[in-house]
Amino acid sequence: MKRFVAAAVVLAFVGLVGVARGAEDPNGTWKWSVTFGGNTVEQTLKLKLDGDKLTGAMVRNDQETPIAEASFKDNVVAFSVTREVNGQKRTTKYKGTLAGDSIKGKSSRERDGQVTETDWEAKRQK
């Protein structure tokens, strides 16, 4: 009987820890479209969560760029991507909330002293 009670307590604790960390899982391939100057470009994001460490890469126009400053806490995904465009490095920061097979949030980037924010919503690919 003591073993049963001990096992029940352990399972309850593990369940509570799982709920506290967030039941959502960011692992996988995510896609969404972005329109720049009348051109629509498909974005692909590959995410992998290993313990508390989030890693991944953004793929656009067959070019894969590693993400940086990545985190996942309380179902919030955050990361940045730096690309070189016409000899200039440009960093875009992303932050979004994961709910099921969707991440919805905002991206921001600075250019010529101006910060531009854009809504984004990625869908997990099956």
Short description:
The protein is an alpha+beta fold and 126 residues long. It is built from one helix and nine strands.
Task: Please characterize this protein's 3D structure.
With 126 residues, this protein is α+β, with helices and mostly antiparallel strands. It has one domain (24-124): Beta Barrel (Lipocalin). It is 16% helix and 65% strand. It contains one helix and nine strands; from the N terminus they run αβββββββββ. It has one helix spanning 2-21, and strands at 28-36, 39-50, 53-60, 63-66, 68-73, 76-85, 88-99, 102-111, 114-124. A nine-stranded antiparallel sheet has the order 4-3-2-1-9-8-7-6-5, with no helix packed on it. The radius of gyration is 19 Å and the shape is globular. The relative contact order is 0.15. Residues 4-21 have low confidence and may be disordered.
Please name the CATH topology: Lipocalin
CATH homologous superfamily caption: Avidin-like
Helix content: 10-25%
* Assembly of the depicted chains: single chain
How would you write the strand order of the largest sheet?
4-3-2-1-9-8-7-6-5
**CATH domain class:** Mainly Beta
